[in-house]
Amino acid sequence: MNVTLQPQNVFDFFIELTKIPHTSGHEQAISDYLMDFAQKRGLKAHQDAANNVIIWKEGTMGYEQKEPVIIQGHMDMVGEKTKESPHNFLTDPLALRVVDGYLCATDTTLGGDNGIAVAMGLALLDASDLAHPPIELLITTEEETGMGGAQALDPSLLKGTRLLNIDSEEEGIFFVSCAGGNVTKVTFKPTYERFEQKGYEITLSGLRGGHSGLEIIQQRGNAIKLLARALNQVPGLRLSLIEGGAKHNAIAREARAIFSAPSLDEKALKAFCETVLAKEYPQDAIACHLRPVTAQEWMDEATSRALLDYLYVVPDGVQSMMNGMDHMVESSLNVGVLEHLDGTLVATHAIRSASPSRKEELRQKVTILAQHFMGEAKTFSDYPEWAYDPESELTKRCLQTYEETTGKKGRIMGIHAGLECGLLKKKRPKADMISFGPDMTDVHTPKERLSIASVERTWTFLKALLKNL
After folding, report:
1. Hey, is 80 helix, strand or coil?
2. Which of 38, 133, 207, 290 has a Cα at 20 to 30 A from 329?
3. Is the dihedral of CA 142, 385, 110, 12 positive or negative?
4. Catalytic status, residue 280
């Protein structure tokens, strides 16, 4: 990509980050890059066992005695690609391009979530002409897969009581609370019979997918749920395989199954998918591909029916809305991944809620349904919500500075997604926190886009905010 983007210092660092593979669980290289960055500039830095990195920079002249400010983001990204893409997220740099004022990656996620926070943090530390208080740059790991880095963080390493989380995706929206959540996995142990039999492979594709927190309110179709719904109508069905989705925190875009049925009405099945479902989800380009195949292993009919019934009836999507807050989701559930692992079938659900009791209610529903349909539920990566503080001085200063730098009024909102602010607030209860960021769309999908102009405005705002703190 032979284009110079502004602000150049921010985008230069961002482009460097896209050359280093850094999907969740594979952050060693990028964590080491951050440590090397600090060492080359003579900045104090710390890398912990979870590969979290903290880099400290002293305040500039006149700001030396000010309270430190924590700049926070995460270094891992969601690795999603199109079906045709040969990209290897463990070894390959991203292929970048600019389209209509947006930075994108070719056929993969971009990692603007949350590489842009890392890039802005590095640009702040690298600059010699900015006024700012002492900075503690905190970059965590495994945010996208359960916030493992924030879970492992030693809070005593930080001194600041004001935290700027740059992990939001709509400019001018300042998030002051977030949902808590967990990852609940349901494991089934189907019994297989080995014999060769002709059957069918069905693939449901063309759905938009998206972030299972931010875009769950749009009621986008979930390919796993829709495939189960379609197959539930087939009498005498036996499964050989059923799978779909890629990430627990992304709405499933594709799903497929291999099944047999004694008298399948192929036209009726395809018509249900491409006519009935397409009418219900007109924004999606739903496609149903059905072809004959031969398989060697088959579940019995009772097990097949139990699995499909579970996937059909388990709650999914928006479950409740916030009282007194228009268009704000309180609780949701997303079955993001269905996969075969070592002879088992595992359905992974992302549960989110701003209410601890509602979060527990959803976990219990999934657990009870799993038991009823011969499965076992286990919950991992539970993280807390972040409650709104109406007296926050940091929020007031952010809104004032945003209006001064853009001429527009910012808005405060809660976010139906798990921000690390929830965990960090639990570890540092007295910290005043806020979350913001530039415009991004279709995060966690190969269509992810990062607005170049919005990055520049957000960078201008961030510099002015630090000067005012």
Report:
1. coil
2. 207
3. negative
4. no
> Which has the closest alpha carbon to 394: 406, 409, 412?
412
Side-chain half-sphere exposure of 399, counting CA atoms within 13 A: 13
Outline where DSSP puts E strands in 315-448: 317-321, 329-341, 344-353, 375-383, 411-415, 432-435, 440-441
- Contact between 293 and 254 under an 8 Å Cβ cutoff? The reply is no
In 280-410 the beta strands, taken as DSSP E runs, fall at 287-299, 317-321, 329-341, 344-353, 375-383
Residue for token digits 């019994």? 191
Whether 377 contacts 367, CB under 8 Å: yes
CA 91 to chain centroid: 21
- Nearest C-alpha neighbor of 328 from the set 338, 320, 336: 320
Q: Are strands 69-74 and 162-165 parallel, antiparallel or unpaired?
A: parallel
Extract the runs of DSSP E, i.e. beta strands, from 17-80: 45-47, 53-57, 69-74
Residue among 94, 69, 68, 70 at smallest CA distance from 80: 94
29-66 pLDDT, tens digit per residue, is 999 999 999 999 999 999 999 999 999 999 999 999 99
Catalytic-labelled residue, pool 76, 144, 171, 284: 76
- d(C-alpha 106, C-alpha 85), whole Å: 9
323 exposure class (CB count in 10 Å sphere: 0-12, 13-18, 19+): exposed
- In the sheet that holds 432-435, the strands lie side by side as 45-47, 53-57, 135-140, 69-74, 162-165, 432-435, 173-178, 411-415
* Angle made by CA atoms 142, 144, 147, in degrees to the nearest 5: 50
| Contact status, residue 54 vs residue 46, Cβ threshold 8 Å | yes
pTM across the whole model: 0.73
Distance between terminal CA atoms of the chain?
Answer: 37
* H helix or E strand, kind and range, residue 241: strand 238-244
Positive or negative, the Cα torsion across 337, 345, 278, 351?
A: negative
Residue of 27, 142, 143, 439 marked catalytic: 143
Domains of the chain, first to last: 8-179+385-468 (3.40.630.10), 182-383 (3.30.70.360)
> CA 360 to CA 316: how far, in whole Å?
15
pLDDT at 99: 96
Q: Extract the tokens encoding 300.
A: 């019995």
Given the DSSP bridges, would you call strands 432-435 and 162-165 parallel, antiparallel or unpaired? Answer: parallel
143 is catalytic: yes
